[in-house]
Amino acid sequence: MITVVIGGGTMGAGIAAVAALAGDGVALIEPDASARERARSLIARAATDRAGNVQYYEAIPAGLQAGLAIEAVPERLDLKRSVFAALARALGPRALLATNTSSLSVSEIAQGVEHPERVLGLHFFNPPTAMKLVEIVRGERTSDEAIERACNEAERFGKTAVVTADTPGFIVNRVARPFYLQAMRAYDAGAGTLEELDLLARGAGFRMGPFELMDLIGLDVNLATSESIYERTGAKRLEPVPLQREMVSAGKLGRKSGAGFYDYSKGKPVHDDAPPAPPSGINQDEKVLIIGLTNVAIELREALDKTYTHVNVCENPEAVEAMPLDSTVVIDGGDGVSDRGSFIAELERLFASETVILVDAYATDLAALSRRLRHPERIVGFGLLGSLASQNAVEIVDAEETSDDALELAQELFESIGKRVIFVGNTPGLFLGRTVGSIVNEAVCVVQEDVATPDDVDVAMQLGTNYPLGPIAWGREIGADRIARILQRLAGAEGAAFAPHRALWVLDVESEQDPMDVAVAEGVVESKPNTGIIGYPGITPF
Question: What average pLDDT is seen over the chain?
C-alpha cells in the first residue's frame, strides 16, 4: 500500500510517520529542501525502525501508484486546490484524495477535481502519532464508499474515526470554542484570575485550563480558528473576544513568544493542584443541615458525615417546621433549576442571624436575593455542576455583601471533604457553569444540525481534546434543565446569543433510539418539514 502525503510541515511529517508505522510505503512530497530535512528528522524520531518506509520527493513523481493521498499544506484555499488538481492528474480515479484542513471547506477544496466523490477530509490532531482521533469529513459530493474506505484506513492507522459534515470547525474545533471564548469572557467579567480559572477547569476534569492551553496552542493559531469559524457561521456566541485580538496584536502569542496569558521568561509556571490537607479531626462544633434530595444533597450528606459530628437532612423543603433551628450551617440543595430566593427568605426568618446559609449560585440570583434579606452577610453562593465526586474544585462567590466569617466557614466545610475552594466574582454562571454549559450547548447544536451523531461528538471531544466526559454525556449528567437555567441567566446578562439552544432538552431523553427522533415523535420538540429545523412548541428559537 502506498500513501502519498503532500506537505512536510509538522502535521504532514506526523501523518507520514503514522502511515509508515502502519506498514505503508509513503511518498512525502515537499518542494522546500530545508522543510524536507526537518520532516526527515521528525519521522526518524516518530517512526523509528519504520522511518525507512518513507521516500522524499520535491514533486509528485510520474507513474506513482497510490490508494490514498493526504494533503497537509498551509491553510490557503488556492494552494490546496492546486494540490488537488495535481493529485487528480497523477493518481488513478480510485485513489482517495483527502485534505487535513482544520478550517476550510472540503467541498470548496474539491471544486474542479475529477471524480469529486473520492474527495473528503481526514483531519488528524497534533501530534498525529500520539492523538487517536481522526475526523472524517464528508463533502457535498463525497460518496458513501469513500467514507467507508476512509474509516477503514483510519482503523488501519490505529485511529478512532468520527464522521462529520463539512461545516465550520467540524466537531472538535467548533464544540471546543466556548472553552476558550467563555473563559475569556468570564475573566473580563471579573470571575477570577487566570490562575484561579485554570485551576477550576482542571478541578472539573479538564487536563489543562483554557488560558494555559491557549498559550500552548498559540494565541494567534487559536484566534485564527475562532475567526474562521465565526466568519463562516456568523454566530454571535462564537465571536472572538477583543482581549485575544489585542494580545495577538501585541505579539503575546503564548509559550512560543515567551509571554501570553502567562509569563514564560523563567520557564513554565508551576501549578499546585494538590487537594487541601485533611482536617485534624471531626468537627463537633458546627451543626449542618442539608435541605433537599438532589444528587448533590445526597453526596454532600455522605461526605460531610465523615468530617462533621452533627449532620441533619431535611428531604422535604416544605417541612420547615421539622427543621432543627439550632443549625449553624444550612445548605440548600434546591432542585438545580429554580431561583430559590423566596425559599431562602423564609429560611432567614426561621434561623438565627448567625446561621450561615449556602445557596446554589448557578440557579439563584444572589444579588436579587441579598436585596430582600435583612442579613445578606450570611448568604454564601456555591457552584457544583454535576457529580460531587467528579469535581475537585468548588467555586464560592465572594460577594460584596457576604461576611468574611461566612466565607471562611464555607471554605472550611468544602475543604474538609477534599475540595479546593476558589473564590469567584458574582457573575451569571460563575465560571464552570457558563463554560461547561456553553460547551454542552454547542454540542447539542452540532447534533441538531446533523453535523455528527451524539456518540461521535462525545468520542471526538474526549479523544481530540481530552475532555473528562463527552459533552453530550456530561450534559445528561448535569441535566438539561440545569444547563438551561445557567444559560438563561447568562443570556439575560450578556445577550440572547448565549441562550440555551431550543433542542437542549433532548439530553434528558433516555432511549437506544436517536434522542432527537424520540423527542420529535413524542412531541417534546417539533420538526418543520423540509427545513431540518427543530424547535419547541411555543418557544422562541435559539
Answer: 92
Backbone angles phi, psi at 536, to 5 degrees: -100, 135
- pLDDT at 377 exceeding the cut of 90: yes
Q: What is the C-alpha separation between 370 and 360, in angstroms, rounded?
A: 14
Q: Is the distance from CB of 207 to CB of 466 less than 8 angstroms?
A: yes
Mean pLDDT of 133-145: 98
Instruction: Give the burial string for 500-519 (b: 16+ CB within 10 Å, else e).
Output: bbbbbbbbebeeeeebbebb
d(CA 347, CA 318): 11
Here the cell at position 406 is 461566612
User: Which residue in the block uniquely carries the three cell numbers 434528558?
Assistant: 508
User: Considering only CA atoms, which of 502, 504, 486 is closest in space to residue 182?
Assistant: 486
State the pTM of this model.
Answer: 0.91
- The position carrying cell 490557503 is 76
Position 105 confidence tier, pLDDT thresholds 50, 70, 90:
very high
Report the amino acid identity of residue 468: P
Tabulate helix, strand, coil % of the chain (nearest 5).
45, 15, 40
Residue 275 DSSP label: P
Kindly report, residue by residue over 243-259, the tens digit of the pLDDT. Answer: 999 999 999 999 999 99
Cell of 186: 468570564
CB atoms within 10 A of CB 28: 26
Grid coordinates standing for 150? 476512509
Q: What is the pLDDT of residue 510?
A: 56
In the structure grid, which three cell numbers stand for residue 79, read together?
494552494
